[in-house]
Fold this sequence. Notes:
It is globular, with a radius of gyration of 17 Å. The chain is mainly alpha-helical. The protein has a two-stranded parallel sheet with strand order 1-2. The longest helix is centred in the C-terminal third of the chain and has 18 residues, at 90-107. Helices cover 47% and strands 6% of the residues.
Amino acid sequence: MELAYPEEGFIAWYDGPCLVSQAPHPEAAYALIDHMISPEVQAQLGKELGYAPANQKAVDLMDPALKASLGVDQAEANLSRVQFQRSLGAAYEAKATEVWQKAKAQVQ
C-alpha cells in the first residue's frame, strides 16, 4: 500500500496541544507542549501512529521507509491541494458530540 495525494485535493486537519486560559499550571503545560513538538517525539509519532511530523527536524530522525510511507518528501509539493477541515457550526458540533457520547456509552 502506498500513500497517494489525489489530484482533486484532500482534507487535512491539525491536532495539537494548546494552553487553556486560566490553566492552573501553565509552566507544566508549556513543558508538555515543548515535549510533544520535540523532534524525537514527532519522529516517534510518525513511527507509532502514522502522523507526519509538525517539526521539520524530526524528518532527519526518520528512516527512508517511514518518510516514504508518510509522504514526507511530497508533502510540500502537495500543499496547494490541501483543504483544511473547518468548523461546521455549533449545531453540528453539538450533534456530533451527542452521537459520539452515545457510541461510547454502548461500548462501556
